[in-house]
Amino acid sequence: MTAAKQTILKILAEIRPEADYGASSDFVADGLLDSTDIVSLVASLDETYGISIAGTDILPEHFQNAETIATLLGKYGVGS
Amino acid sequence: MIVNLVEYLETTGQQLPDELAVLAGDRQMTFAEWRMASRQLGVRILQRAPTEANRPIAVVLPKGVDALVAFLGVLYSGHFYVPLDGSSPASRLEKIFADLQPMCVVTAAPLVERLTAAGCDPSQLLLIDEACAVGPDDEPALTERYRSTIDTDPCYIKYTSGSTGDPKGVVLPHRAVVDYIECAQDMYQLNQDDVIANQAPFTFDVSVQDIYLSLKSGATLLLVPEQHFVFPANLITLLTEQRVTFFCWVPSVLVNVCNLDLLRDVETSLRWVTVLGEVMPTKPFKYWAEHCPQATLVNTYGPTEAAVASTYYVWQRPIDDGQPIPIGHPYRNSSIFLLDENEQLAGPGAVGEICIRGSSLALGYWNANESTRNAFTGNPGQTHYPETVYRTGDLGHFNEFGELMFVGRRDTQIKHQGYRIELGEIDVAAAAVAGVQQACVVYDHQRRQIVLFYSAASELNAAEWRKTLAESLPAYMLPKAFHRLDEFPLSAHGKLDRKRLMAELDSV
User: Fold this and answer.
1) Beta-sheet strands, E only, within B214-330
2) Class of domain A3-17+24-75
3) Which of B120, B243, B350, B415 has its CA 20 to 30 A from that of B98?
4) How high is the mean pLDDT of chain B?
5) With an 8 Å Cβ cutoff, are B233 and A56 in contact?
6) Residue B253's pLDDT is what?
7) Domain B324-409 is of which CATH architecture?
8) What's the pLDDT at B508?
9) Long-range pairs for B422-425 at CB < 8 Å and ≥24 separation?
C-alpha cells in the first residue's frame, strides 16, 4: 500500500472509526461517509499535506475510495 | 378561497396541464400527470375503505415522483399523509407505527420486507405502482370525498424527535398550510417560469413549502439528488444548468458552498435565496448576497408546530460578520410575543420565550394530549376568550428595529445538520445499551458534533457504540465522539449537570 493511501485510511479511521473502508469501493454510496465527513476529510488532507483542495475538485469520482483520493492528491503534488 | 391543499393540484393540473411540475433525476411529471396519478391512487384508497375518512396513511417511499403522487393521492381520498423515512431503524419505525395505527401504508416493493419487519401487516401495504381499475362511479365519489375535507382537517403529520425517547407526531391542518402558502406566494410571486430546488427530506416541513408553492404557482419542483449536497460543486452546476430561481435550504449547505468558494465566476438565475432550519451565520450569507446580486436573500424561522415558517428577515442593511442575522417579522398569518420566566410579556429588548399565535399552528401532537397541553397553551395575555398559542422553547428578543432575534434554546433540543434533535432521545437509547450505567449526550457547537458521555463497567469502542445505536436511532442522531466517565457531575440539586459536561468537552 502506498504511503498516501495509508495516510488517507488513517484520517478516515479518525473520522469514522466504525466504517469498514476496505470492504467498500464507494464510500459515500455505501453510506460510510456523509457531507460533514467529506468536509472533515478535505480539511484533514489540506492540513496534512499543506495543500488547498479546490471546491470544484470535491466531486464524487475523486472521493470514491482511498485509491481515487490518492489520485486527486497527486494532482496537488502529493507523491504516492 | 382555498379550503384544502388538493385544490391547488386540481386548479394547476387543469390550468397548466402540460407544464413540467416535477423533475427528479431521469423521471419527470407534468401537472396533469400528477393530478391523474394522484386521483387514481385516491380511488384505490377509497376502494379499500369506502366509508372511512380522516385517517392517517403512512407514505414510505424514497424522495421522488411516486412520493409526491402518494401525498396528494392520500389527500384526494379524504385522509392525511404521514411521510416516513424507509431507511430509519426498524425499531423506530415500529414505535411510530404503533403510535400512528395507520389505515394503510403506501410504499414500493423493495421496502415491503423492511416494513413487515417493523410490524406492518402485509394486508396494510398498498404498492404505489400497482394498477387500478377505475369505474364510472369512482371519479364522482372521489370528488365528493375531497371536497368534503374542511380546512381544520389534518393534512399531514410530521414526526420529530421526542425528549422521552419516542418520536412525536405533529398534526398540521389544511388551513395552516394553505394560509402559509398564500403568504409565501404573495411574497415570492413565483410562476411557471420558476424552478424550485428542493433539498429538504419529505419528512421535514420545509419540503411542504417546496411542494405546495410549486402546486400553487405552476413552478417546476426540482428534486436535487442527495449526493449533490455531499459534493456541492455538482450542486452549483445543477443550479445553473436547470436555471433554478428559488430555494429554501438548511444554512449548512450555504456555509459549505461559501467555504469552498464555489460561486466564484458563476452566474445563477436565482431570484430568491432563502434559509430555514438552523441559525444562518452572517459571513456565508453575505457571500451569497455578493455572488447573487440579482437575488433577494431571506432568513426564515419557524418550528414544525407552525406550518413551515413563522417569521422572515429580508437581507437589507449591512450586518457585521460577528453580528447575528435577525429572524425578523412574522408572516401575516402569525403573531409573535415573548414570555419571560414569570410568564409575563418580556419587557422591551428583554429575552423571552418565543410564542406563536395564528392560523399557522398545528392541531397538536398525535396521541399525546399531555405534551400537547404543555406546548399549546392558553394565551396568558388573553382573558376574554380562549386562544391557543404555541410555546416554542426558543428564546429571543426584539432589537432596536423591532426585528426578532434568535438567542438560543430553553432546553436540550438542538439543530444538527438541519435536523431537530432532542438530546434526551439519544440519552434514552444510549442508556438502554447493555452494560451502560448512565449516559448523557451534549452538543459540541464548535466542532458541530454530538458527543456521548457514559459510565459502564467496561469501555465500548466507537464502532460498537455506533453499530448498536444505529439499531434504534437514525444516522443523523448518532454521536461522533464517545467518552467514558468514572462518575457524572451533579448539580446542587443532585441532577446530572449537563453544563459541567459541556465544560468537560475542552479537556477531552
Assistant:
1) 220-223, 246-249, 272-275, 296-301, 311-314, 329-330
2) mainly alpha
3) B415
4) 93
5) yes
6) 93
7) Roll (2.30)
8) 62
9) B422/B161, B422/B162, B422/B163, B423/B163, B423/B450, B424/B162, B424/B163, B424/B164, B424/B165, B425/B161, B425/B162, B425/B163, B425/B164, B425/B165, B425/B166, B425/B167, B425/B473, B425/B477
Contacts of B260 in chain A (CB under 8 A): 54-55, 58
Superfamily of the domain at B421-507: ANL, C-terminal domain (3.30.300.30)
Domain ranges within chain A, ordered by starting residue: 3-17+24-75
Instruction: Collect all residues of chain B within an 8 Å Cβ-Cβ radius of residue A36.
Output: 417, 448-449
Cα gap A5→A1, rounded to integer Å: 7
| B417:A55 CB<8 A | no
CB contact under 8 A, A31 and B229: no
Q: What is the pTM of this model?
A: 0.91
Amino acid B471 reads E
Cα dihedral B280, B443, B83, B226 in deg (nearest 10): 60
Report DSSP state, residue B306.
B
Q: Which three cell numbers stand for residue B241?
A: 444548468
Alpha carbon dihedral B439, B443, B449, B451, in 10-degree steps, equals -20
Q: What are phi and psi of B192, to 5 degrees?
A: -70, -10
Q: Write down the CATH number for the domain with range B1-150.
A: 3.40.50.980
Minimal Cβ distance to B231: which of A31, A54, A60: A60
Cell of B22: 416535477
DSSP string, B429-480: HHHTSTTEEEEEEEEETTTTEEEEEEEESS---HHHHHHHHTTTS-GGGS-S
Residue ranges of chain B that CATH labels 3.30.300.30: 421-507
Task: Give the per-residue pLDDT at B261.
Answer: 94
Percent of chain B residues past pLDDT 70, beyond the cut:
99
DSSP labels, B371-405: HHHHHEEE-TT--SS--EEEEEEEEEEE-TTS-EE
Written as one letter, the residue type at B372 is T
- Ranges of chain B with pLDDT below 70: 493, 506-508
- Specify the 3-state DSSP secondary structure of B330: strand
pLDDT digits (tens, 9 = 90+) for B331-373: 999 999 999 988 899 988 899 999 999 999 999 999 999 999 9
Point out the residue among B227, B257, B417 whose CB comes nearest to the CB of A36: B417
Per the structure block, which three cell numbers stand in for B153? 382537517
Of A17, A31, A58, the CB nearest to B231: A58
Burial of B315 (0-12, 13-18, 19+ CB in 10 A): buried
Nearest CA in chain B to A56: B233
Nearest CA among B428, B448, B462 for reference residue B505: B448
Nearest to B233 among A18, A34, A58 (CB): A58
